[in-house]
Amino acid sequence: MSKGKKNKKRYQPARHQQLVQPQQATLALPAKAKEYLQSLPDEIKQSWKPTSLLEVAQMAEVDKRIGLLLSAYYHIHAVQGFLTGEISNWLDGFNLWIKGVRPAMNDVERAEDRFYEAMRTIIDPNKGATHEDYIRDVDSLFEKLMHWEGIPKNWQIGDPLHVKKPSERPKEDGKLVVDDGREEKVVGTVTLEPEVKEIRHAYCISRLNEDETADIVKADIKNFGLAAAAANRLAKKDAGRMYVVYEQTIQTQEVATIKPVKGTQMPKDGGALVEFRIDTGSKDTKKGGEQ
User: Fold this and answer.
1) Is the pLDDT of residue 196 over 90?
2) Which 8-state DSSP code applies to residue 73?
3) What is the pLDDT of residue 59?
4) Closest CA to 76 of 144, 147, 143, 142
5) Longest dimension (CA), the chain
6) Helices of type H across 196-263
7) Which helix (H) or strand (E) is 208 found in, with range?
8) Is 284's pLDDT higher than 50?
9) Are the beta carbons of 288 and 272 closer than 8 angstroms?
């Protein structure tokens, strides 16, 4: 009896059979990725369910950013090869391979090579670039680095070891130097732009000559109507000549020049106030009052 009840219970179908759906694994997101996803608009959050961290990175264009940085690293790595190559040549030429120097240099080069090769399998930093582009960029970066460091690019024994850096030249001659990434250009002395205090408009009349030049015949006419009437009168008296009305923009500017004329200082150890006048670079001091 108990056995039959057992069997009946065992094979009795469930009253409410439920289908268990496989649950999708929750993607473990780092803090940066989670912050990015939370910043997306609600419609994108609802429709887009990333299945991998790489997919999230591609959506945020982080992979492209890494590609650009790797491209820069690729150029720097090549320039580093120029530098270590010349260092090795000088060490070989004068037999300066002190114990431990060569292994240290080899370790640095191998570490950089391994890092670059590992990252290159993920993202190609030179996609779309030609070999000529690469050579030009590396040469430009190398020249820029040597120029910035004040190191002659092609040096021979007996040549000056150091040339003036770009940061040193403006201090010496007061010139405004603009560096465009390939070379520095002196564009003039540094001046302050005068402040425009007033702008007014007027009109002038010019007469066109046969050689395509023009002569101003009337200027500072207050309004267009007067200028047009004056041009018509001139044209009627001078048949065959063209008269042109120009609009003038007249600006009144205010220019300030400053120079030191007086200095004053209270001594740290006490005593009377020190005041002095400044005249053509000389300083005369007088305690307790102005000279």
Assistant:
1) no
2) H
3) 93
4) 142
5) 138
6) 224-237
7) strand 195-208
8) no
9) yes
